[in-house]
Fold:
Amino acid sequence: MRIDIITVLPELLRSPFEASICKRAVEKGVVEIEIHNLRNYGSGKNKQVDDYAFGGGAGMVMRVEPIMACIEKLQSERSYDAIIYMTPDGKRFDQKHANRLSLFENIILLCGHYKGIDQRLRDHIITEEISIGDYVLSGGELAAAVVSDAIIRLLPGVLNDETSALTDSFQDDLLAPPVYTRPAEFRGWKVPDILLSGDEKKIDNWRTEQALERTERLRPDLLE
Ligand code: ADE
Structure:
């Protein structure tokens, strides 16, 4: 899979892909991540990418031309399954959405700034709009990193058995059950006996019960 990220702040997007699971996925060649500085497509000597809003009002708007120039350059090199705009008024991101995007070959993530992008881009070129939650970030970069991370860990060959995504919270619409490791007792705090019993069937049943109980208690909305 290939993820192209378009941003005015490329430095905000480097470190998430330089550590841990995402780094390993890049090194293995499972995913290619390219970060494009929108300023390289800006006009004039200041490489301007924003301008005043027609009709007045506070805040700048990201211009059509630099964004189209960058997207069209990418489209001249390969075709894209989705051109996604990161914005707080997009569709709320969840595990199902991550699962769907992980099946794509090439996607573009466009990070918004200021008051957002010219509406004509949203009308004519953007295929999906994603929000990572009902709060406003300073820009779409951190949201793009969140979405990329959620996708990358699902790609075949990225996780091994120990870290398998199949047992993650949300994969079956349930929260994950509690987990424990050694020691079996710490300051009188004990690990549930059943996990030490060696009886795999009982342990599986216990985990399912725990997952259900936690979901009912903490996220009843998932069971509706
Ligand atoms: N840009 C600013 N806030 C955002 C959010 N919550 N989700 C996605 N992109 C954003």
In short: The pocket of adenine is lined by residues 86-88, 112, 131-133, 135-137, 140, 143 (CB under 6 Å). The chain has two domains: 2-152, 169-223.
